[in-house]
Specification:
By secondary structure, the chain is an alpha+beta fold. It is built from six helices and four strands.
């Protein structure tokens, strides 16, 4: 029971950190249900999805790892998310939040949907502890570079009841 309470407290703390970071520049949550629904639809995978090759896996892993590393500069993180310029104010808010400095990601399976889209299994961590385990996000190939799909970041924003012009 004590471990369960610890996990819940850790998850709440993690969500609070994400909330404080993403709510900078966010509007009302009237559109959060729509964003969450469209993200869930985009996250649906087929059982026969091909596994990504080594180079693609490495590129997607690098994009996710740097994007979710709160110690990285906001501009570098914005370059690794689809519609990065629109998310820059949120990422700058995260950079100024000392509680968010321990944020990172652990990746799971990466499966290609097509040549320019992939489904990505990931867990969001704070100080190495999972706060949002076993999530499914997307990666998109944009201008020849693999990036975290805006739908993935929008889903995290929607969890907190926020929104962004990029969503």
């Amino acid at each position: 029971m004590r471990e369960s309470l610890f996990r819940k407290a850790t998850a709440c703390l993690g969500l609070a950190v994400v909330a404080s970071a993403v709510l900078v520049g966010c509007g009302s949550d009237d559109e959060s249900d729509t964003a969450a629904s469209s993200t869930e639809a985009a996250a649906t995978t087929t059982a026969a999805a091909p596994t990504a090759d080594a180079a693609t896996t490495q590129a997607i892993t690098q994009a996710y790892t740097v994007f979710f590393d709160a110690t990285q500069p906001a501009e570098k993180r914005a370059a690794l998310v689809e519609s990065g310029d629109a998310f820059l104010p949120i990422l700058q808010g995260q950079a100024s939040n000392p509680q968010g400095q321990g944020t990172s990601v652990a990746l799971g399976a990466i499966e290609l949907v097509d040549a320019n889209n992939a489904d990505v299994g990931y867990s969001l961590l704070i100080n190495g502890a999972p706060v949002l385990p076993d999530q499914t996000g997307q990666a998109v190939k944009d201008g020849g570079t693999w990036k975290v799909a805006s739908a993935t970041f929008c889903a995290l924003i929607a969890i907190q009841g926020g929104t962004s012009p990029a969503c």
